[in-house]
Amino acid sequence: MTSAAPSTQATDTRELIVASAYACFRKHGLQKATIVDIARAANVSRSTVYEYFSDKGAILEACAEHASEQFYREMAKAIDAGRSLEEKLSWAAVFVTQARRAIASEKYFDEDAISLLLTKDAGVLLRECVDFFAPYLAAAKLTGEVRKDLDVSAAGEWFARILFSLFSTPSAVRDADDPAVVAEFVRAHVVRGFSGDRPRPRRGTDR
Predict the structure, then answer these.
(1) Residue of higher predicted confidence among 195 and 32
(2) Average pLDDT in the 137-149 region?
(3) Is it true that 1-53 and 64-194 share their CATH fold?
(4) Residues 64/36, Cβ–Cβ less than 8 Å
(5) Which CATH superfamily groups domain 1-53?
(6) How many Å apart are CA 26 and CA 20, to the nearest integer?
(7) Which of 8, 106, 137, 146 is the S-S candidate for 194 at Cβ 3.0 to 4.6 Å?
(8) pLDDT value of position 103
(9) CA end-to-end span of the chain, whole Å?
(10) What is the three-class DSSP state of 159?
(11) What are the structural domain ranges in the chain?
(12) Cα–Cα distance between 28 and 24 in angstroms, integer?
């Protein structure tokens, strides 16, 4: 019982520093915020900050991890209203395109959290996205929504790359700010590709 107190206090202090750093990054920007600013905001000494984090980069990494967890919690809320895989993935795409527009809406996400999230290495971001969708794809295999031989990891990576593209590159041919357009794009070109086999063209007819 008594041994849990120091651990709890350490966790609370670390979380306080992260929350204070988040506020400082929002106020001063990622580049201008300093350890002194963070310590002052957390009402602790600089030495206390260094007990938990080696430098500002380590604090930024912790904030990015927190932002990542927040982002996926909010996306899970947005897509779990969908009953089928098709609906879930469609809503995921809508969520991401709204993130691209950086709409400051507490219903979905925090604009500053998106900025922190993007400080992560691209490979790490991709891996997190693949891991997030893996359970949804695996469940769809069990329910027969997708073909039985679907490679969950490969399908997850393919869809994650689609989401990255929707986030980073505005469409020149469709209104990606329209949720209905985005949802239909996913239904037509993503989910249906995961379900049953498509007939192969006969030889001599695919020229």
Answers:
(1) 32
(2) 92
(3) no
(4) no
(5) Homeodomain-like (1.10.10.60)
(6) 10
(7) 146
(8) 43
(9) 75
(10) helix
(11) 1-53, 64-194
(12) 6
Residues 82 and 92: beta-carbon distance below 8 Å: no
205 CB-near residues (< 8 Å, 6+ apart): none
The structure tokens listed for 121 are: 């290495």
Choosing among 3.30.870, 1.10.357, 1.10.1740, 1.10.3730, the CATH entry for 64-194 is 1.10.357
Predicted pLDDT of residue 7: 59
Q: Is the pLDDT confidence value at 58 over 50?
A: yes
Q: What are phi and psi of 120, to 5 degrees?
A: -70, 155
Q: pLDDT at position 195, please?
A: 77
Among all chains, which residue has been given the structure tokens 């204070």? 20
Q: Per-residue pLDDT averaged across 99-105, rounded?
A: 55
| Token pair listed for 44 | 């602790």
Average pLDDT over residues 69-92: 90
* The one-letter amino acid at 172: A
- For the whole model, what pTM was predicted? 0.75
* Alpha-carbon distance values, 195 to 143, 144, 190, 192 (Å): 11, 8, 9, 5
Give yes or no for a contact between 128 and 75, defined as CB atoms under 8 angstroms apart.
Answer: no
Encoding tokens for residue 169? 């590159």
